[in-house]
Design goal:
The complex is a heterodimer of chains A (116) and B (114). Chain A is globular and about 45 Å long. In chain A, the strands form three sheets. In chain A, strands 2, 5, 6, 10, 11 and 12 form a six-stranded mixed sheet that branches. A four-stranded antiparallel sheet of chain A has the order 3-9-8-7, with no helix packed on it. Chain A has one domain (3-115): Immunoglobulins (Immunoglobulin-like, Sandwich), CATH 2.60.40. The mean pLDDT of chain A is 94. Chain A has 116 residues and is mostly beta strands. In chain A, a hairpin with a 7-residue loop joins strand 10 and strand 11 (104-106). Helix content of chain A is 0%, strand content 53%. In chain B, the strands form two sheets. In chain B, strands 2, 4, 5, 6, 9, 10 and 11 form a seven-stranded mixed sheet that branches. In chain B, strands 1-3-8-7 form a four-stranded antiparallel sheet, with no helix packed on it. Chain B has no helices and eleven strands. Classes of the chains: A mainly beta (116), B mainly beta (114). At the A-B interface, strand 5, strand 6 and strand 11 of A face strand 4, strand 5 and strand 9 of B.
Amino acid sequence: AQTVTQSQPEMSVQEAETVTLSCTYDTSESDYYLFWYKQPPSRQMILVIRQEAYKQQNATENRFSVNFQKAAKSFSLKISDSQLGDAAMYFCAYRTAGGRDDKIIFGKGTRLHILP
Amino acid sequence: NAGVTQTPKFRILKIGQSMTLQCTQDMNHNYMYWYRQDPGMGLKLIYYSVGAGITDKGEVPNGYNVSRSTTEDFPLRLELAAPSQTSVYFCASNPPGNYNSPLHFGNGTRLTVT
């Protein structure tokens, strides 16, 4: 069974600094998709960034980028120029590449605090 | 376009009572999911469905049942409520064929079992 592990329950970063959130996963599949979601206090789930496992190039979305290491099964999220609005829970998620077994599994999350 | 709609938003149950959490989507999405989120924790997959008539167990299915008679609806049934089922429940959906697309979440149902 696939698992997703986020080893940092909480992290803090100074406003305008850079922070990296860790995520590792376990799978025997070769084709899959990885996501980072943000959950502010409103409980709404917001997609931050996504990565296809078959792509070697790391995904970037403005201030957000990932370091995808397929062999190490690692998918970390880097937030540059941190802003107060980035404070939230961040969840790493794994998705199998279709078929009947189309599960999307989440990690336990990392709570990110932004210090003014 | 309503997206994913969950009802009710809040519910308090007594131990042993039953209830159905409703989830409906109007986006013609094949894939639908039920998650629970305990306080300060991540989302755990309860059940999922890849299409009408097909359902599968997720990570924590015990104490729950689902059905998928239509593409639009994916209700979650709690037969004998227990305090351990106190949680926020999220329904989500995804279109077919695009595995890179983000999940569309409902607003959640906060359930308390006392």
